[in-house]
Amino acid sequence: MTRILLTILLVANVASAIGVIYARHRHRQLFVELNRLINARDELNIEFGRLQLEQATVAESNRVDQIARTRLGMKFPEANDVVVVRP
């Protein structure tokens, strides 16, 4: 009877130790993954800031006007070229 109880306790102790080892290993894996994701998030935030700055620069009205005039050959219409349509 004592041998059976001792064997059961030994098996339970080994199983518990294996469970602790697995839990620590899994914790380390998840911690590494968390750090990788945090770094990726930070890189994406930096890229987003760059893109916002670029968008603000490209969308500036003076720049749009300059590109419309130089690349597209656009200009403001003369007063006699404007036609007002009324219902």
Automatic annotation (TrEMBL):
Pfam families on file: FtsL
Cited InterPro entries: Cell_div_FtsL
Subcellular location(s) of the protein: Cell inner membrane; Cell membrane
GO cellular component: cell division site; plasma membrane
Biological process (GO), any one: FtsZ-dependent cytokinesis
Keywords linked to the UniProt accession: Cell cycle, Cell division, Cell inner membrane, Cell membrane, Membrane, Transmembrane, Transmembrane helix
Record membrane topology: Single-pass type II membrane protein
HAMAP family, per the entry: FtsL
PANTHER family named in the record: CELL DIVISION PROTEIN FTSL
Role of this protein: Essential cell division protein. May link together the upstream cell division proteins, which are predominantly cytoplasmic, with the downstream cell division proteins, which are predominantly periplasmic.
Subunit structure as annotated in this protein's UniProt entry: Part of a complex composed of FtsB, FtsL and FtsQ.
Family: Belongs to the FtsL family.
Protein name per Swiss-Prot or TrEMBL: Cell division protein FtsL
Organism lineage: Bacteria, Pseudomonadati, Pseudomonadota, Gammaproteobacteria, Lysobacterales
